[in-house]
Design goal:
The chain is elongated, with a radius of gyration of 21 Å. The chain has two domains: 46 residues; 83 residues, Tyrosine recombinase, N-terminal domain (DNA polymerase, domain 1, Orthogonal Bundle), CATH 1.10.150. It has a three-stranded antiparallel β-sheet with strand order 1-2-3, with helices on one face. 19% of the residues are buried. Helix 3 crosses helix 5. It is mainly alpha-helical and 172 residues long. The protein contains five helices and three strands.
């Protein structure tokens, strides 16, 4: 068996937990918090550790606080958008948040929000009678908010790949 080398500072660490027999890989983020990955073997834990570090460096690994979509949207509209947009736009955004996004998606943790959640939400809104243009407006607000969350590294990905309903007279 090959002799294991000591890991260099910043590379993270891999160790065996006796309590459950799993291998643990961990590394520190820029804010000083530790991120952990787990594997059944040392090799698996090391691979997962390298992947997590790569995702962190690329900005894909989620490192933000544990908050719900509702909490984030409230912050986004009041602290980010309010001073940058016109009053009428703010009122429209606020209405979309209050009447659609917060009741439909507000209970989900921001980090757990997926494109599937959003697609199901849009479909449900259409079944409930929302027009295609209303669903597109909802999508614009959510897309902008989650784009900002991605820049802050609060979410791993945006909902760019979710298809938005078209008007019936538009070709597909």
């Amino acid at each position: 068996m090959a002799k294991s080398r000591r890991r260099v500072r910043g590379e993270g660490s891999v160790y065996h937990r006796k309590s459950d027999g799993r291998w643990v890989g961990s590394f520190k983020t820029e804010d000083g918090k530790r991120k952990y990955v787990y594997g059944d073997t040392q090799k698996e834990a090391l691979e997962k550790l390298k992947n997590a570090q790569r995702e962190y460096e690329q900005g894909v690994l989620v490192t933000g606080p544990q908050q719900t979509v509702k909490q984030y949207l409230e912050y986004w509209i009041e602290d980010v958008q309010k001073t940058k947009i016109r009053l009428t736009t703010y009122q429209v955004y606020r209405s979309i948040l209050r009447n659609h996004l917060i009741p439909g998606l507000g209970h989900i943790r921001l980090q757990k929000l997926t494109a599937q959640h959003v697609q199901s939400f849009y479909a449900k809104r259409q079944r409930e009678g929302c027009s295609a243009s209303r669903v597109r407006n909802i999508h614009v607000v959510l897309h902008n908010a989650l784009g900002h969350a991605k820049r802050l590294k609060l979410v791993g990905s945006n909902v760019r790949f979710v298809r938005v309903a078209r008007r019936r007279d538009q070709p597909i």
